[in-house]
Input
Amino acid sequence: MSKSTEKVVVLGEQFDTPEQQDAASQMGMWVFLSTEIMLFGGLFLAFTATRLAFPLAFQLGSRHTEFVLGTANTAVLLLSSLTMALAVSASHRGARKPLVLLLLLTMALGALFLGIKGYEYYGDWQKHLIPGENFVWNEPQPQHAQLFFLFYFFMTGLHAVHLTVGIGVVAFVTFVAWRRGYNATYNTPVEVTGLYWHLVDLVWIFLYPLLYLNGRHP
Amino acid sequence: MSKDSKPEIPFLKWIGACLAAVFGVQALRRILRALSPSQETTPLPAQGAALPISARPEKAEDVLMPPLSTPVEEPENYLNTSYSLKSWLLTTDHKRIAILYAFMITFFFFVGSAAAALIRLQLTTPQGHLVQQQTYNKLFTMHGVIMVWFFLIPALPNTLGNFLLPMMIGARDLAFPKLNLFSWYLFVAGGLFTLFAILTGGVDTGWTFYTPLSTHYVHTKVMLTAAGVFVSGFSSILTGLNFIVTIHRLRCKGMTWFRLPVFVWTLYATSLILVLGTPVLTITLILMGLERLFGIGVFDPALGGDPLLFQHLFWFYSHPAVYIMILPGMGVVSEIIPCFARKKLFSYKMVALAGMGIAIFGFLVWGHHMFVSGQSMYADMTFSLLSYLVAIPSAIKVFNWTATLYKGSIWLSAPMLYALGFIGLFTIGGLSGLFLASLPVDVAVHDTYFVIAHFHFIMVGGMVTAYLGGLHFWWPKITGRMYPEKLAQLSALLIFFGFTLTFLPQFLLGRLGMNRRYYHYAPEFQMLNVLSTAGASILAVGYLSPFSYLLWSAKYGRRVSNNPWGATGLEWQTASPPPTFNFSATPLVTQGPYEYNPEDAERELKRDLAILQSDASVPNGARFAERHQEAQDTAAPTTEAQDEQKH
Amino acid sequence: MTDTIDSAQHKGGEEMEATEEQAKAKQPPLWLHLLVGVSLLALLAATAGAAFLPLGRFSTLVAVGIAVAKATLILLYFMNLRFGDRRLWLVAGAAFAWLSILFVLSMSDFLTRGYLHIPGK
Output
């Protein structure tokens, strides 16, 4: 190990080498991501089953979502994934400045996503699309359309919670990176944070067509 | 309805029961302490309890070891390294965390058992004089929730698994020690939520939280209880994550996958279920909670939602969850049987892979809980067919344990008695599971005591028995001291008979058509119910007994060598109790986990007996050897005869 | 799954060290990252456009298909499964395998309900 590694790596007593520690952290993050996949998976199953029961209401519901905002948001999130991947690459090269910049950019894109999403929610609220007492629906199957919007709000909401957590973690990693906490041999936190960020993106990639694109064609 | 207006009073009763149990145990401890030979002065052969005739010393030195006349300075180990409360509550040592879990789990076990005791008391008379109907609903819900989520699921992985996993693979700790501690705190938090819910009025949905009952019709503490389960679910997930990464990444040199002890294999399989199943329960509970809080939800039939969807999601986790409970038990038995048969585990690879098979097949069968709840007939048939699949790996395990016993040099110590009990009870439970997997039979006996008997044979007869067996087996490793063997053997038998008497009648009751979850029943069922309650009281004594003498022996038991059973396995190669980082030097593994040899074991035994008989310096040595010889002659004459034939 | 286990067995303890050195997996080059990024945006345009085509019942199929393609790109290149430790495939693969179990077996109920025209079956 080079001296620079020893400066930053705190090797847990249970590990023999920093490499072992890094591999364990990565695998730990992947196992955690697999639980996230199952968490959202259960939700997607519920969505699919309900949609199969009420195809028309779900098509009509989809048409009431904001296509332009949803698509723009998808693009924002895909871009943020790209900057995050580039940040991880930069951390492997030990390039501190690009790393910090790319992480900041990632955070900014994440925040932009949340901003657009919030604006969208505001519009939905004004259109009385929130299920419950004030739900207004002038088309067929108001009950089942409510189910669609339940899913819409809960799924995007849960995703937004995950993204908010992600921004927080990236902020912490950025701070440490700025304080020269990582180098070419020790960058495990950047790497596992990246994995989490991509997974949040992955969830949105499936939410987008299912919630926004269904029933758009005439 | 006015009968239901004051449910608190029976709860005071069970609190009283708990207190009585605690005081009883205290009294028992006092008595045991008074009866016990004082360790400092008594010469060795007079320690009747410590050296019973059936306890076979591994080496002559163990028996010849001079009695400890003065307390010897113990080498530093995980227990004596620090005594402060802080050093326990902030520990990251997997062994200490295992002990912390053990305390919580024992507590929850007795809370759950208290509920069970009240249920059994209520059912001694057909009219049920003890509690009112609503209270009865709360009792069985509490029993289910506590036992499933706060005892059965964490019991083996988080106590024995936590303690042993790193040692068995030659590691210094789990991969993420802080996460391990955090997981314990989550578990405690979840437990407190649930206890609080119970103490402030309880919950009466049954442990399954079926919608729309749980979301629209009951007015009890559903949210609090569900929150408790939800939080403890995260604890499960983190433990599973930790185990998976540890097994993949922290094996010592030479510890290949097929040199792992079967217990580690089963922990791996268990972790797989914990990690991939629990999140689905998490999201299901969230959706249920939203529906209860806001009155509209995705399972709500009023909106067109589908309550069966809840059942699918719930059982996707909860059916595999029963394999979380039983798989580590199978692992424990796979450790105990080779050790006390002094024989290699028969077909080790198949046993190891069968555990993985159970974990995977376990995810394909959940629909058999829904045969009568309105799912499509085609799904019924699919799930019925798939349910039979689980029998294959389970049978592989049972056959291989049995084959391991064949021509072994069998030693009927307490852990072995528990393990043998496990095989019998698990087989009955498993076979009755096949009845339930078959569609027409299930439709007939669904929601009857047949189902209750079936899963208690697996959960109590299987898992709890294995847990106790494992606890006895590794007790010398955990505490450095031996439990009283005779008492332990007696308790093992008591538990076996108590259990059988409790639950065998319930198969008959179910077959006769007695419904589960009713606070009263038709008079013709009374005889069998009384039998069942009688069995439950024997079982209660059976469980209190190990609880008392194990606690006693943790302080006053005979000190033992590092490997009193002469077991293979890395955990036995280090000190008892182990040092904080388990090994003084990282071990190097060169062979499989069960390198036992029955012929050698018999030869060594004879040699040790000869030494004892001839050595006049050991008082009563000859007498001990004679008694031992007699016991052996009656126990295993065939083995020796066959040996002679071979030569 | 058995493949990985078998290979781990054959190679024994040394295998762990070998892969740990590979664990600092090489990263995809910059151009590859950019290419993947551009492809993702192109796929987004494709799926947004396809939503307005009169594809009937295949519309959802196309949309989900494109989503799968996007997800695969991210998993392989951004999450670095392509060049990373092979054991991570096991974890990621298990998650998706289990997800498919959940879907397939649940759908065996949802898709076949009512075939028999018996209420409640």
User: Anything to note?
Assistant: The mean pLDDT of chain B is 87. Chain B touches chain C at residues 244, 248-249, 251-258, 272, 276, 280, 308, 312, 316, 353, 356, 363-364, 366-367, 370, 374-379, 382-383, 589 (CB under 8 Å). The longest helix of chain B spans residues 133-168. The longest strand of chain B covers residues 481-482.
